[in-house]
What does this fold into?
Amino acid sequence: MILVSACLLGLNTKYNGESNAHSLLQKYCLWGRFIPVCPEQLGGLPTPREPVEIIQGTGQEVLRGRSLIKGEQGEAVTGYFIRGAQETLKLVKMFKVSAAILKERSPSCGVNHIYDGSFSHSRIPGQGVTAALLKEHNIPIYSEEDLNEERLKELLCQDQGYDKS
Ligand code: SF4
It folds into this structure.
């Protein structure tokens, strides 16, 4: 099975109550191999919710207690993000997940980049909290921005244990 950020599949889990619907992922959802997950909802946050960023750090640093996640007004929500990552890891173990496709730049799901905590749309290299935890447990993580149809089919075929040809 492949874990996918729920918002990419069209579920309205995003902080503003909308989705990040991704037509290619929605198309291949019909193969029945995707598990939609929103770590922020699993961690106990409501939808809609305030947009937040990791402050001066990455998901790895949040997991080690070296960085916080806050909204623009300074309210800290770090614990919800850590809980959401831990709950997501439970799903990974429950369903023998082979890979995860996650929404780029999210403080939970970002794979290659996240925002820098200045709320100015500035990016830094690094992962969100859930992406970092999955990586630490050797789950291959992919950004939706890195996938084309060919690569996605390869992942799906690997997940099912056969050659796509
Ligand atoms: Fe999407 Fe991940 Fe944000 Fe949930 S936490 S809305 S799945 S990017």
Q: What stands out?
A: Helices lie at 23-28, 39-42, 59-63, 78-94, 129-136, 149-160. The chain is about 30% helix and 20% strand. Residues 2-160 form one domain. Strands lie at 2-5, 34-37, 52-55, 68-71, 99-102, 113-115, 123-125, 141-143.
